């Protein structure tokens, strides 16, 4: 069973693909396309950069503040200079800022943000005194921050989709060329058809050669025990096959020798 491509598809693809592809090739191509589509729809949107300054009640930047955001993956940042910055994809998130003193949270702030599109946005946070004074088992000196760049992640996945699509096209081209090569054997390795001459034709050629390669049709007729019509047919056939050339000269035909029969024919004799 073979799958035929539609005329529109053949016109679009041109000579790159054969008119028929094997079922295995079709399944392989469908598998690649399915993976590409899944990756394409699973791509996150490009991220937005959210940054700002952390202020205390006197509107002064507050140092040594732990800032967290509930993205996936979770991000946590220790601000030592009163500023922060996160990369976030589209969605709704909670940013929480906490200042700790003697193992308890003395100042905190929490803000809900909605990221609708990519870009850079400034959201300043104002930390208020925490009346509850929750104790936290957190050592801020151990906090390490590794920024998450969602736009880069998107670019990497997009690059993966492009590579997969190129592999699909490249694989289809290779399959197409392989199928066409199997259908069309190499003409350079194809043996020429074996030529067969009748005894009368060989005798006529030998007679032309005996006349040093040029003889009149009348002389050939005298040297052959054949009718004039038969000799004329033999000359016409040999001329069509490239062994001799017939030249009209007045009422007489001059026959000129051109080539010998092939070796394969001579061996078969």
Structural description of this entry:
By secondary structure, this protein is of the alpha+beta class. It folds into 3 domains: 3-42 and 154-183, no CATH class; 48-148, Immunoglobulin-like; 199-261, Arc Repressor Mutant, subunit A. 36% of the residues lie in helices and 28% in strands. It has helices at 7-13, 23-41, 150-183, 199-210, 217-223, 228-240, 263-268; strands at residues 3-4, 20-21, 48-55, 65-69, 75-79, 83-88, 91-101, 104-115, 119-122, 125-126, 128-129, 214-216, 244-249, 252-257. Strands 5-4-7-8-11 form a 5-stranded antiparallel β-sheet, with no helix packed on it. Strands 3, 6, 9 and 10 form a 4-stranded mixed β-sheet that branches. A 3-stranded antiparallel β-sheet has the order 12-14-13. The longest helix is centred in the middle third of the chain and has 34 residues, at 150-183. The radius of gyration is 45 Å and the shape is rod-shaped.
Q: Any chance you could write out the topology, listing elements then pairs?
A:
Blueprint: E1 3-4, H1 7-13, E2 20-21, H2 23-41, E3 48-55, E4 65-69, E5 75-79, E6 83-88, E7 91-101, E8 104-115, E9 119-122, E10 125-126, E11 128-129, H3 150-183, H4 199-210, E12 214-216, H5 217-223, H6 228-240, E13 244-249, E14 252-257, H7 263-268
Parallel strand pairs: 3-9, 3-10
Antiparallel strand pairs: 1-2, 3-6, 4-5, 4-7, 7-8, 8-11, 12-14, 13-14
């Amino acid at each position: 069973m073979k799958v035929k491509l539609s005329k529109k598809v053949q016109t679009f693809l041109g000579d790159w693909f054969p008119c028929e592809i094997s079922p295995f090739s079709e399944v392989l191509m469908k598998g690649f396309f399915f993976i590409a589509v899944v990756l394409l729809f699973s791509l996150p949107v490009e991220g937005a950069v959210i940054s700002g300054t952390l202020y205390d009640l006197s509107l002064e930047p507050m140092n040594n503040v732990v800032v967290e955001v509930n993205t996936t993956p979770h991000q946590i940042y220790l601000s030592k200079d009163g500023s922060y910055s996160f990369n976030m994809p589209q969605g709704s998130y909670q940013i929480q800022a906490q200042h700790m003193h003697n193992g308890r949270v003395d100042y905190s702030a929490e803000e809900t943000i909605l990221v609708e599109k990519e870009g850079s946005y400034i959201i300043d946070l104002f930390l208020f005194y925490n009346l509850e004074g929750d104790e936290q088992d957190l050592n801020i000196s151990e906090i390490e921050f590794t920024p998450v760049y969602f736009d880069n992640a998107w670019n990497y996945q997009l690059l993966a989709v492009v590579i997969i699509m190129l592999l699909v096209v490249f694989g289809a081209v290779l399959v197409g060329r392989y199928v066409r090569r199997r259908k069309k054997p190499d003409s350079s390795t194809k043996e020429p058809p074996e030529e067969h001459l009748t005894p009368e034709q060989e005798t006529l050629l030998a007679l032309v050669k005996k006349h040093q390669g040029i003889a009149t049709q009348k002389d050939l007729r005298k040297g052959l025990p054949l009718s004039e019509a038969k000799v004329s047919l033999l000359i016409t056939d040999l001329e069509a096959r490239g062994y001799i050339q017939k030249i009209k000269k007045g009422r007489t035909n001059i026959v000129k020798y051109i080539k010998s029969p092939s070796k394969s024919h001579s061996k078969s004799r």
